[in-house]
Amino acid sequence: MKLPRAYYNWVSLIGAVLAGISLFMILFLIVVSLFIEVTSSYLGLVIYIILPIFLVIGLILIPIGMVRQRRRMLKSADPDAASKWPHINLNLRQHRNAFSIFLISTVVFLFLSAIGTYEAFHFTESTEFCGELCHKVMHPEFITYQNSPHANVACVDCHVGSGADWYVRSKLSGLYQVYSVIFKKYPQPITTPIHNLRPARETCERCHWPEQFYANILRTEKHYLADENNTEWDIMMKMNIGSDYHALGQEEGSHWHINQDVSIEYISETEDRLIIPWVKYTNLATGEEITYRDEEYGEDLELLANEETRHMDCMDCHNRPSHEYLAPPFFTDISLTRGDIPKELPDIKQVAMGIHYLNFPTTDTAMMVIEADVREYYEMMYPEIFEEKYHLIEKAIAGIQEDFKQNIFPEMKARWDVYPNHLGHINSTGCHRCHDDKHKSSSGRVISRDCNLCHTIVGQGHPDQFTTVAVRDSLEFVHPVDIGEAWKEFHCVECHRYLY
Ligand code: HEC
Ligand code: HEC
Ligand code: HEC
Ligand code: HEC
Ligand code: HEC
Ligand code: HEC
């Protein structure tokens, strides 16, 4: 097939070959991925981002080569190059061929790039792209995400949401993130909270619609003490999420804070929002305002005058809806309940605690220490179990290792104390940041720490001596191990953040 002479030069030829090969590979990989279930996130990166770059470079090389070739021909007084610009004459076969190739390939290219852009868009919005591509950096977030009730909600549904505005913002900050991953400039651990997170109103509330909210729920948790028998202690609580009567919506209970008529603003002394010396409640319907100040904070409050206030939303309680790092006693309780760690093995909770609170440089070291320590402990302390029921020890080792991998991430320094959960008050300050009986208004009203405000205990104790009351009544809390009145005097977190 004849083409204009300017086409015959090395640059254009290389361009054409490059474009041809890229196009072929793109099509080939698309076909492959249609027929074979490929889970690798790199494939999407190759098909929709890397190969198209080579395709475009190839296509650009073709005209560059042609222009250079024409210049050369002009200089060498070639008869073909009499005029400076090409004249297109469709009656000539070469011109017709070149023109049809140009036309067809433009149409095909535009069509493919439309599909490609669409796929590239989808790919950069996918959970694989966000969670797996920068494997090391996003590993903790990705693992905890997979264990969360939101494992089927895409990362972008919470982190970007809908609309072009946030899409562009997310891609711009994404560019910076790519740079920081390549040049290892990312912080370890990744800083929390995310200060420019899209407001919950525009993300969470698209699925969880506050006008139709949740009624109270009953929850029972099994706990195991770190003693010889791994003594079980169950707690059954009614969580006062909303009103007792569904029709009353969020008039009371924890979701009172997001009642449409309620606005709560606060100032935090620190970036991490853990110390909150000033809180203001406004009733938007009546205009009533109450300001509470942390009495321990005293005069320093003037320093806060310039600080920005934050409006309380879902995120001030549910800050870990998708990346919850449980504290060792609690994740071990879950594995003991499930049977992943055999509870008939004496001392096993205590042994597990002794390991999880250590600091390890890498996950691999932790895995080795878990295996060695557990084995050694039973060999020394319970030789008969070590001899006769070694399978229990083996199972315990596997369970403890798995627990560690799901909740503690030494490489990125991510764990429960670095990413505190605001929902609750045992392993982090959580609700007690405000609800501590110490935030007082000028009239003496406090933000209450009453144990029956947020939940009522309807059952507690060892399964053999489980005390219960009717759902509308409540029991006074009995601490699972006798610590006297200490649980009334101190915040739970003061002992529980690093219990062992
Ligand atoms: C249900 C909503 C939701 C989903 C789904 C979700 N996240 Fe998050 N993510 C959050 C919230 C809320 C925070 C904490 C924000 C804060 O405290 O400021 C967060 C925080 C983060 C952080 C900062 C570190 C931290 O833990 O505070 C990273 C990184 C992150 N998410 C990555 C991801 C990735 C990757 C995915 C998908 C694999 C994902 N997220 C899915 C809601 C979500
Ligand atoms: C794309 C929809 C979607 C978005 C966006 C979303 N969620 Fe969810 N959420 C769900 C689904 C689905 C469930 C699981 C429901 C179930 O377990 O019955 C859930 C469950 C929950 C639960 C209950 C968890 C439990 O342990 O039972 C909480 C709390 C929650 N979401 C909070 C949030 C918060 C906070 C955000 C915003 C950061 C958010 N969700 C964003 C769909 C969503
Ligand atoms: C930023 C401060 C702040 C935080 C954090 C906070 N609260 Fe509150 N909460 C308030 C204020 C202010 C009131 C109103 C106090 C009053 O009665 O004067 C309140 C009232 C309540 C009430 C009573 C509502 C009613 O009238 O029935 C409940 C229940 C409650 N909070 C639960 C929680 C839970 C659960 C958490 C943690 C997940 C939490 N709060 C975290 C500020 C806060
Ligand atoms: C003041 C703290 C607070 C705020 C603010 C808050 N919640 Fe909750 N929410 C709670 C508590 C406490 C529970 C009960 C948790 C439990 O049972 O462990 C709960 C439960 C839930 C549940 C689970 C209900 C179920 O039946 O399992 C969902 C979903 C939820 N909240 C979504 C939201 C969303 C969305 C927002 C923002 C619009 C929000 N919450 C704001 C404290 C809060
Ligand atoms: C401001 C609200 C609030 C107050 C006040 C409060 N709690 Fe809680 N508490 C919570 C929330 C929310 C959780 C659930 C955390 C979660 O979902 O894991 C919780 C969890 C618990 C649990 C753990 C249940 C389990 O089995 O995992 C116990 C025990 C408990 N609270 C006891 C108390 C006692 C005792 C007091 C009084 C000193 C108290 N709480 C005061 C909000 C509160
Ligand atoms: C003086 C320190 C101290 C204070 C304060 C304290 N605890 Fe404890 N707590 C302990 C000790 C010690 C254990 C026993 C650990 C073990 O044997 O597993 C424990 C165990 C528990 C357990 C069982 C834990 C598990 O591993 O499953 C729960 C639940 C609990 N405490 C709740 C609370 C609550 C709620 C508060 C606050 C109202 C509180 N504690 C305050 C020291 C304390």
Word description of this protein:
There is one protein chain. The protein is an alpha+beta fold and about 500 residues long. It has 4 domains: about 5-125; about 130-185, no CATH class; about 215-320 and about 420-495, no CATH class; about 330-410, no CATH class. The chain has helices spanning about 10-35, 40-75, 95-125, 125-130, 135-145, 155-160, 165-180, 205, 330-340, 350-355, 365-380, 385-390, 390-405, 450-455, 485-490, 490-495; strands at about 215-225, 230-240, 260-265, 280-285, 290-295, 310, 440, 455-460, 465-470. β4 (about 280-285) and β5 (about 290-295) form a beta hairpin. α9 runs antiparallel to α10 (about 350-355) and α9 packs across α13 (about 390-405). The chain starts with 9 loop residues before the first helix and ends with a helix. About 25% of the residues are buried. The protein binds heme C (6 copies). The site of one heme C (HEC) has 26 residues, from β3, β4 and α14. One heme C (HEC) binds near residues 252, 266, 279 and 453.
SSE blueprint:
Blueprint: H1 10-35, H2 41-75, H3 93-124, H4 127-132, H5 135-146, H6 155-159, H7 164-182, H8 204-207, E1 217-224, E2 232-239, E3 262-267, E4 278-283, E5 289-294, E6 310-311, H9 328-338, H10 348-356, H11 363-381, H12 383-388, H13 390-407, E7 439-440, H14 451-454, E8 455-461, E9 467-468, H15 486-489, H16 492-496
Antiparallel strand pairs: 1-2, 2-8, 3-4, 3-6, 4-5, 5-7, 8-9
Helix pairs in contact: 1-2, 2-3, 9-10, 9-13, 11-13
The structure holds heme C (HEC) (6 copies).
